[in-house]
Specification:
It is a single chain. This protein is α/β, with parallel strands linked by helices and 263 residues long. It has one domain: Vaccinia Virus protein VP39 (Rossmann fold, 3-Layer(aba) Sandwich). It is built from 9 helices and 11 strands. The strands form 2 sheets. It has an 8-stranded mixed sheet, sandwiched between helices. It has a 3-stranded antiparallel sheet with strand order 1-2-3, with no helix packed on it. The longest helix is centred in the N-terminal third of the chain and has 11 residues. The N terminus is likely disordered.
């Protein structure tokens, strides 16, 4: 649970691994690199300031919902998270500002997704971890179909995954979402793509062409630069990999010791 308080900025950890970072005075400040990469996808989804309907699977300390509220006032956002204790802590110590437009539900992410109305979301953001692994029921073809149903035709699916070479998990997600979405990309640090370390990989899926050049420019200029893989370059991840069926699903790989712990 939360163990670091820096005045009005909070770093929350779970089992020693950083889980969320919140700056109450500046919700547009995103400390974690993967969160900034997801924010780049959000920023390029519509003209600046345009409200969006966003469904968040996994909430943590509500870092990205706060970001959307600050950068796109009037957005409507729903959040599902099963960690009742964490959400109670957030409500008491890190409350959302009045009129945030964010509704938080203590609920399984898949259950909320299955109940969401068809074509009701402009963005679907998945950042769900059971401990340090993505749960198996959020990796399957039926899950991807549910995401496809809920997104509007122009909508984007964005997921925070963690993997390393040979990228069997990330590849399985590309293969799964590639059966339903025409345009995909992966965003990660070059060292992760080269298999030098375990790390976060952001998956983006859309029916419409993605602004890969703009995403590449934005992610390359971050403090920890990232690369955008798309098009034919994704074939190396999906070679010999089949979409994930419900009966064959498994969680994301176990991170090696120390992969995400604080030094």
């Amino acid at each position: 649970m939360p163990d670091i308080d820096r005045d009005r900025a909070w770093l929350l950890t779970v089992d020693g691994a950083p889980q969320s970072y919140v700056d109450l005075d500046d919700p547009t400040h995103l400390e974690f690199e993967y969160a900034r990469r997801m924010a780049h996808v959000l920023d390029t989804a519509a003209p600046p300031g345009t409200p969006l309907d966003v469904l968040h699977l996994g909430g943590g300390a509500l870092t990205l919902p706060r970001y959307v509220s600050a950068t796109r006032p009037g957005s409507r956002q729903r959040v599902a998270d099963t960690d009742r204790a964490l959400l109670a802590f957030v409500e008491e110590y890190l409350p959302l500002p009045p009129g945030s437009g964010v509704t938080v539900e203590v609920r399984d992410a898949r259950a909320l997704l299955d109940d969401a109305p068809t074509a009701s979301a402009d963005m679907l953001i998945a950042d769900v971890y059971g401990g340090v692994r993505v749960p198996a029921h959020l990796t399957t073809l039926s899950y991807a179909r549910a995401a496809c149903r809920v997104l509007r035709p122009h909508g984007r699916y964005v997921a925070n995954l963690a993997d390393t070479a040979p990228f069997r998990f990330a590849g399985s997600q590309l293969a799964t979402f590639g059966t339903l979405f025409a345009h995909l990309c992966l965003i990660a640090e070059p060292a992760v793509f080269r298999g030098r370390r375990f790390g976060n990989t952001v998956l983006v899926a859309s029916h419409d062409p993605l602004p890969v050049a703009e995403l590449a420019r934005r992610t390359a200029s971050d403090v920890f630069p990232a690369r955008v893989e798309h098009g034919a370059a994704l074939a190396r991840f999906t070679d010999g990999v089949a979409p994930v069926q419900d009966g064959a699903a498994s969680p994301s790989p176990e991170p090696p010791p120390g992969a995400f712990t604080l030094g």
